[in-house]
Design a protein that fits this description.
CATH topology of the largest domain: Quinone Oxidoreductase, Chain A, domain 1
CATH architecture of the largest domain: Alpha-Beta Complex
Oligomer: single chain
Radius of gyration: 20 Å
Number of helices: 11
Largest sheet: 7 strands, mixed
Strand content: 25-35%
Order of helices and strands: EEEHEEEHEEEHHEHEHEHEHEHEHEHE
Length: about 350
């Protein structure tokens, strides 16, 4: 038995997303069935839909920032009940037994995590389909509790944009007395500012646009440095303990490395491949500085992040859209014309049934 689902899918790299009907598996004993209410739109969705990472298998139903209500649970599920508000992020399974999984770092699963869309289900070999759809069936180990203190619409992007910035801040123990800089003010960058400030750090935004200063301060920045101004960059030399770099395309890391203190770390959360221009070894060696990377976050730390957000009233700044607007939203994303994340209202599927 399977569940017939309405959604939107890309069928090739060059065609728009269109209505699509597909099947979800019949729930297993440890599964949670979730009626999706809202799904954030991540730039990764666009990359995948257009095969920009050269691994997409079509048709693909994107979406990995899902918020919804539980409509059914399997016989072995005790943590969730019908009616609970829950979330599903970038992963829906992992091997559960490797060294990474044992540490609660399922995103680094040695055997490879099963992602919310475009992956093969570890048990039945079926392709996974994401949150641009009305319902999903997920193992209870990968379902997250959403507090009633959080607005579910603006909480949806926390499942990717939120955890992607939270995880490195926590891993490198950012808190009071930390001096943090965030590079880029987009879906990830604006969450980085909010989290770093809430954790007690002194926060600076690096930006190429002078017009973003007021917005950056609204989001938590104590300072704004114009990265295109050599004098401002020189004045920032040796200032920061930690740089959170959210820019998803190639850019010169050397000017930012010069602003790190001894033992400072520059963390990449955008997939920048290859890193060009070349990083100057002297920038690293003479300050014992590090360049590191971070990938989303594990399930336990994602729940920690959601609970922190509920306690501190933190959500993502969003623009709500209908499912039928997704192709226009992608074009606007390419122009950075969104503050700061699109979120799909899945009730809009009823306006144009697949």
């Amino acid at each position: 038995m399977t569940i017939d689902i309405r959604g939107y899918a890309a069928h090739s790299a060059t065609t728009p997303l269109t209505p699509y009907r597909f099947e979800r598996r019949d729930p297993r004993a440890d599964d949670v069935v979730i009626d999706i209410l809202y799904c954030g739109v991540c730039h990764s969705d666009l990359h995948t839909a257009r095969n920009e990472w050269h691994g997409t298998k079509y048709p693909v139903v994107p979406g990995h920032e899902m918020i919804g209500k539980v409509s059914a649970v399997g016989s072995k599920v005790s943590k969730f009940k019908v009616g609970d508000m829950v979330g599903v992020g970038c992963m829906v399974d992992s091997c559960q037994h490797c060294t990474a999984c044992d540490r609660g770092l399922e995103q680094y699963c040695v055997e490879g995590a099963t992602f919310s869309y475009g992956s093969k289900d570890r048990q039945d070999g079926r392709m996974t389909y994401g949150g641009y759809s009305e319902r999903i069936v997920v193992s209870d180990k990968f379902v997250l509790s959403i507090s009633d203190k959080l607005d579910p619409k603006s909480a949806a992007p926390l499942l990717c944009a939120g955890i992607t910035t939270w995880s490195p801040l926590r891993h490198w123990n950012i808190g009071k007395n930390s001096k943090v800089a965030v590079v880029g003010l987009g879906g990830l960058g604006h969450m980085g500012l909010k989290f770093a400030k809430a954790l007690g750090a002194e926060v600076t935004l690096f930006t190429r646009s002078p017009s973003k200063e007021d917005e950056a301060r609204r989001l938590g920045a104590d300072h704004v440095v114009l990265s295109t101004d050599p004098e401002q960059m020189k004045a920032a030399a040796g200032r920061f303990d930690f740089i959170l770099d959210t820019v998803p395309h190639q850019h010169d890391l050397n000017p930012y490395l010069a602003t790190l203190k001894i033992d400072g770390v520059h963390v990449l959360v955008g997939l920048v491949e290859p890193i060009e221009p070349t990083v100057h070894a002297a920038s690293i060696i003479f300050g014992r500085r590090s360049i590191a990377g971070s990938l989303i976050g594990g399930i336990a730390e994602t729940q920690e992040m959601l609970d922190f957000c509920a306690e501190h009233g933190i959500t993502c700044d969003v623009e709500m859209i209908d499912m039928q607007y997704i192709n226009e939203a992608y074009e606007r994303m390419l122009k950075s014309d969104v503050r700061y994340r699109f979120v799909i209202d899945l009730a809009s599927l009823d306006k144009n049934p697949a």
